[in-house]
Write a structure and sequence with these properties.
single chain; 82 residues; mainly alpha; 1 helix
């Protein structure tokens, strides 16, 4: 065997190993990206739930404020009748 043949074998093996490593890296990257997408969807859903909850709290707060005003008005009228 000539030195060029040995060099060709070494480079071919190195190329094969490199290709296998990059394929495995690509597969792992796809798996990680899928998990990130799932986590992102879950976070978005949680944010939407928090937004809906705060909207409900605003509605409850307004109802409480209206109830407080009505209570004060009725208390004022009851006090005026005495």
């Amino acid at each position: 065997m000539d030195s060029y043949d040995i060099l060709l074998v070494i480079l071919s093996v190195a190329l094969l190993v490199s290709i296998l490593v990059w394929i495995s890296v690509g597969i792992l990257l796809v798996k990680v990206l899928k998990k990130v997408k799932t986590a992102s969807d879950t976070a978005q859903q949680a944010a939407e739930n928090v937004e809906a909850f705060t909207s409900q709290l605003k509605t409850v707060g307004r109802a409480t404020a209206v109830g407080s005003i009505i209570k004060q008005v009725t208390k004022a009228f009851k006090g005026a009748k005495k």
